[in-house]
């Protein structure tokens, strides 16, 4: 069952490496597909050139022009899986990750977040924090990250440069906000925000980074005037850009949005009226969205980023992901650093399963998510949420090779294997127990980005 490119494609590209062993991934139809003794070839553009079976080695080596001695064989407890997609992470908040989780959202923003984000005017500080967050997330297996930066254009551009330098696929957002009554110096006027959003987009696109794109980023409805929201909707539309923001995270926020936008039917309608809900929109949280609002998400093609660590840590709420999926709304996972205290998507996988089980405890009729379904959310689901599923998310011929080489039995790692387990059990163990010690190599668009080669050493 060899799948490969048609002959016109193959004549233009050459295969630069081939891996043989177990590959696991998701498809829209199958939450978990295991391919044992698979052969996967990657071409010089970093794209998957073919996927075949070990027994097809001879034929594939002739068609694609490689010798069998060039095939890298995975070890017994190793497998390849698609790279993890973090659909919502605040790069700037990495400076205080793991702390300051003792208040609800709005107080948390005023007390901790805004004062820290204001420091990113200082490019040296920005360089330090952004280098650490890109390295750490790559080390954790995040091949694609959708970042919030801060309101500072130059520091946000620096984040784009750092992601490019380390080879991470990234959507980078310069935060836009013209309302902030608590930390008065951490906001822009509507005009400044619009002008700087334009400058950010233009300068980032001019860099022509192959894997880094700008994302239009109104912080959330409470931080933006209607005027600014509309301007940002227009900018996104005119430039066909991604959009990210927050929605319906906490009850106090939802009440205030109702008061501030009395002419809107719902929180979702606030964004919809300003053309901010499109097929390239990802909204974080959505814990309190009504079924009608979820319908509007589906109709517009907008997606949700589920951030369970943050939802638990700030006592915000519990998103019913099953209901989101039943409404056919695209959904991925987000760490939401630093409302979430972990920068690892593996943690988001575990907290997603916990959140689903909490809902089952409350209502035994609730259809609990399986680990296979959550694996799909962390990979293919994330790529769909970011509208990148034509390029990444699973192992399909023609997609970029974004992948993790996982060794479940890595020496010094956190997993003890007692009996000989099949690939499905190995994946389950990795998702529940594994960490970066099990992630032996990370590839983005065919380039090996972990282990690092920047001379700064491992982390
Ligand atoms: O979890 C969150 N983190 C933030 O920084 C933020 N801003 C608005 N709403 C938010 N929610
Ligand atoms: Zn957030």
Automatic annotation (TrEMBL):
Task: Give the GO terms filed under biological process for this record.
Answer: guanine catabolic process
Note how many cofactor molecules are bound and how.
Answer: Binds 1 zinc ion per subunit.
Q: For this protein, what reaction is catalysed?
A: guanine + H2O + H(+) = xanthine + NH4(+)
Query: Domain named Amidohydrolase-related: which ranges?
Result: 80-449
Q: Which cofactor does it need?
A: Zn(2+)
Q: Tell whether Disulfide bond is among the UniProt keywords.
A: no
Enzyme Commission code(s) on record:
3.5.4.3
Q: What does this protein do?
A: Catalyzes the hydrolytic deamination of guanine, producing xanthine and ammonia.
Subunit structure, as described in the record: Homodimer.
Name of the protein described by the UniProt record: Guanine deaminase
Organism, by scientific name, is: Austrofundulus limnaeus (Annual killifish)
